[in-house]
Amino acid sequence: MNAPVTRRNAVLGITAAATSLAAPSILRAQSAGRVVVVGGGFGGAACARALKRVDTKLQVTLIEPNNIFISCPFSNEVIAGLREIEAQQFGYDKLTAQGISVVAQAATTIDTQKRSVTAADGEAFGYDHLVLSPGIDFHVEALPGYDDAASEKMPHGWKAGAQTLLLRRQLEAMADGGTVAIAIPANPLRCPPAPYERASLIAHYLKTNKPRSKVLILDAKDSFSQQRLFEKAWKELYGDMIDRVALSQGGRVTSVDAATRTIVTEFGNYTPDVANVIPPQRAGRIAEIAGAADATGWCPIDPVTFESKLVKNVHVIGDACLGGGIPKSASAASAQGRACAAAIVNLLAGRAPETPRLTGVCYNIVAPGYGFSLAGNYQPKGDIFAEVEGGATSPVDAPRELRAREAIEAEHWFQSITADTFG
Amino acid sequence: MAALINVPAKAKRGEIIEIRTLTSHIMETGFRHTAAGALVPRDIITSFTCRYNGTEIFRADLFPAIAANPYLSFFTVAKDSGKFEFEWIGDNGYSSTASVSILVE
Question: Among the CATH numbers 3.30.10.20, 1.10.4030.10, 2.60.40.10, 3.40.50.300, which is that of B3-104?
Fold first, then answer.
């Protein structure tokens, strides 16, 4: 064991030594048993719980600075005034009750040689396997003019919480006849269809409260997830309220000026009344500190074990990893968290990890009672995940009853994933 | 939509300026087949030129590997006030032009 000896792991060492005397074939289990998970979102929390569920003897530590998790799924409804932020908030009490050691600190440094994570207060946590589930950070160099101060004027709303509420207040304060611009970055980004869901729900708010207003999408992409479903719904529900400037029409945003609320694209300047700027993204900062992020800003992994291609015994799950075909969604992160837990348990026991088959589901709500979905199955193929058979997207031509049913299913999905993760 | 052009409206004499152009075009490679097996004929832009007050300052040849809606960005030195003229030429007699004025102080 390379990690500093604390009273806790000294005790664990004794038990492990006793086991290895009895059964020398599982010698690898000698130093086994300590897993540190960094990040308590859908990926990290699901992983911590799954680890503890599979093997109650595992010492599982979850390092997460926030006492309350605020869910991004359904936060677009909060922006549109259809839901309160309290419905998005979840605590870690059930994880603690399950025997997971929840540390309310930010992880600041990682020593992959010594296998130790240090928290902001200086406490160090040794590990046999480390799971990073840090979500995203913004790639500020990729969007000149956009920094923390700018995000107070031109909110991103891409990490749920204060930003979600700020965007909502700006919409509420806007006069009828105003323009709400949404700047969308190129792939990869957290939850690829979510900007379009947001455009839909903002249009719903405007149609209901400020019907002379417009939504302007400035998009660094030409095509997007579930595009035909969205565009059909927009026409049906909002007429010409939503205008989209795609990449090949000059929609890519190149810089912003917060002082004048100006969004600069490759071919023009826009000064909307409300500017929702979703910046380009990369893996959460701690992944880079660990040395797990590559030049793309994301983390290459072995998709069977989620182990980083760059650092040993460090696994990366959720939005931060380079997943290939699997989208950066809550559902995918949760599936990855559980599969990663299974892989770690096998690795600790000296068994070969099984090839995971992951399912990701994504619901989009474009108006109250109007939803559609995309479900996909993914399996490792080379260095990434590839979509395999069995996936389904809602039909483009479908009666409104189906859309209404899917909106209800979306709510059920949310209840079920949050209950699985935090309840 | 025809072409999108981004040239600064004003520049200082001697300043290096960026020019961006984007034109909508399918850039059909000529390598694809329909479901029935028939070859989809090639339909691409083959050349682009930019003239600054009548003098050619930039030219590009385009090939089937270039994606739809070709985007070209390049730099020049702002010398005199006047006009930038852009021309795209392609298969099947395709031709498209645009022009933008600049004020050099």
Answer: 2.60.40.10
Contacts of B68 in chain A (CB under 8 A): 248
Q: What is the DSSP letter of B69?
A: S
Q: What is the pLDDT of residue A8?
A: 41
Q: Which residue has the higher pLDDT, B9 or A31?
A: B9
State which amino acid sits at residue B93.
G
Average pLDDT over residues B23-46: 96
Residues of B in contact with A267 (CB under 8 A): 4-6, 20, 22
DSSP percent split of chain B into helix, strand, coil, nearest 5: 5, 55, 40
Please report the sign of the dihedral spanned by the C-alpha atoms of residue A251, residue A256, residue A262, residue A266: negative
Give the pLDDT of residue A32: 56
Q: For the segment A151-184, what is each residue's pLDDT rounded down to a tens digit?
A: 999 999 999 999 999 999 999 999 999 999 999 9
- Among the listed residues A29, A9, A17, the one whose alpha carbon sits nearest the alpha carbon of residue A345: A29
**Which strands make up the sheet holding A129-132, listed edge to edge?**
A101-103, A59-63, A34-38, A129-132, A314-316
The angle subtended at Cα A26 by Cα A22 and Cα A29, nearest 5°, is 105
| Global ipTM | 0.80
Tell me the shortest Cα–Cα distance from A49 to chain B, in angstroms: 46
Kindly list the domain boundaries of chain B, sorted by start residue: 3-104
- Cis previous bond, A73, omega within 30: no
B2 — pLDDT class (breaks 50, 70, 90)? confident
How far apart CA A117 and CA A3 sit, in angstroms, is 10
- Residues of chain A in contact with residue B71, where contact means CB-CB under 8 angstroms, are 248, 266
* CB contact residues (below 8 A), chain A span 261-280, against chain B: 266-268
